[in-house]
Each structure stands twice: as C-alpha cells, then as structure tokens.
Amino acid sequence: MELYKIRKIRTSIVKLRALFLVKIAKRLRTLDSKDAFEVTVSHNLKGLYHCNDRIKLLIDPLSCIEKLDKNSKILIIGPRNEHDLYLLASQGFPMKNILGLDLISYSSKIKLGDMHQIPFEENAFDAIIFGWTLSYSATPKKAIQEIIRVVKPGGLVAIGVEYTSMTKEDSEALIGYSIQEHELLEKRINSTQQIIDLFENQAGHIYFNHDAPMKRSHSAKSIVKNVSNVAVILEVKK
C-alpha cells in the first residue's frame, strides 16, 4: 500500500491492468443512464487509461478525519478506472473495503451501475467519494438522494466538481461538443454552497470547504492546466 503513493508505480499498475482487462480479457462493459448526459460514457471512454491526481483534493483531507479507519467501507462514484481506488488505498484504507461504481467498468473492483440508482442497500458505506462526476448528471438532486440513502447515519460524503465559466458554445468550440446539456439544468453546480444546498436539512458538519479560490477556468480557446476545483466534505444527518 505504501508503494501506491509513488505515482509511477501506481499509474503503471493501473494502466497495465486496464490494458490487460480491456484488450485481452475483453471485460469492458458500459451502461446507459437516462439521468446522465448523452455523451457521458463516450466522453469518459476517451480517458479510460488516463490517471488524474485531482481526486487527492478529496482523498487527502478525507483521510485525516478521525471518523474513518482501516475498517471503514468506502464507495467511489465515477472513478472511470482503478486509479482513484489505488490512490485511496495508499492512504491506509484496505483495498477490500474500497469499491467503485461507474457506467464504465472492466474491473471487479468497479461495479457497473448508475449513481441515480445505486445498487446497494441503505446505510452500506461509511464514506462516499463523489469526485468530478456530479457535473455529468441531468438530475443532481436525485444522485444526492441516492448517496444519502446508501451512506450510514453520520457518514461522510466528499464531492468535487470543476469550476468553469464556459458556456455551451465555449465547450463546443474547444472540444467539439458540450458535455452538459444546459437546457436540462436549472443552473450548473459551480460552488460549494450549491453542493451543500442539494443535501438540504441532511447536511451536517462541514469538514472541508474549498470553493475554487482562484476561479481559473478553461476557455473556448485553451485548456487551463491548473483549472480551479470546487470541493466539499460533509457529514450526513439521518
């Protein structure tokens, strides 16, 4: 588990396993969701072998909260590949207690499923990590209600989204299409307060609040390497 902290080792394991399980074992499966935007699966398949460390913005502070220990059961929603799971394991959480959920899966560590209909019973997890996935939902309130259902009373939820000032036209100019179907959303989630508001009266103590302080956004002309992110870790009251 200590070796997973070394990025070259961690990413090599993830990429080799992905290549074997997808290309040779032919285990890649996908699932459609009526509550996700149309391009969600196709867009994320393009980055299937990419290992992004931005989840550390959630994992690092989460791992310091005393409510969690090596026996805690943790669900990661939308990991795309196994990288987030290995990164969490590097913080001392046994892999046997970590599970992923995604519309894309090639691994037994990632259950194929929809965050709007999470295939687990109530109060199943001590913590849920929901990193950079909420922005793919056309019904974010529904996704949050499912998270509340499957997390234990007093459990922790860590959510991250990318900060952006881009319009639909900006996205189309930059990558050729817009990931979000803006006409389906009342308003894009772009702040920690908007995330907290989705929990309504079930949002308990806020352990971590990172409200994109630099407000750096991609533009229609270029990708910003150090784009700002919104992240919050809160306790769920049930």
Can you give keywords for this protein?
single chain, 238 residues, alpha/beta, Rossmann fold, two-stranded antiparallel sheet, 7 helices, 27% helix
List the helices and strands and how they pair.
Blueprint: H1 7-24, E1 29-30, H2 40-45, H3 56-62, E2 74-77, H4 83-89, E3 98-102, E4 104-105, E5 110-112, E6 125-131, H5 140-150, E7 151-162, H6 168-175, H7 192-198, E8 203-211, E9 229-236
Parallel strand pairs: 2-3, 2-6, 3-5, 6-7
Antiparallel strand pairs: 1-4, 7-9, 8-9
- Using DSSP, what is the number of strands? 9
Helix content: 25-40%
Can you tell me the CATH superfamily? Vaccinia Virus protein VP39
Number of domains as seen in the coordinates: 1
Global structural class: alpha/beta
Mean pLDDT: 96
Shape: globular
- Quickly count the helices: 7
Measured between the Cα atoms of the first and last residue, the distance is 33 Å
User: Strand order within the widest sheet?
Assistant: 5-3-2-6-7-9-8
Helix and strand pattern: HEHHEHEEEEHEHHEE
Main sheet record = 7 strands, mixed
What CATH architecture would you give?
3-Layer(aba) Sandwich
CATH class: Alpha Beta
CATH topology: Rossmann fold
Uncertain segments are none
What radius of gyration results from the CA coordinates?
A: 17 Å
Beta-strand fraction estimate: 15-25%
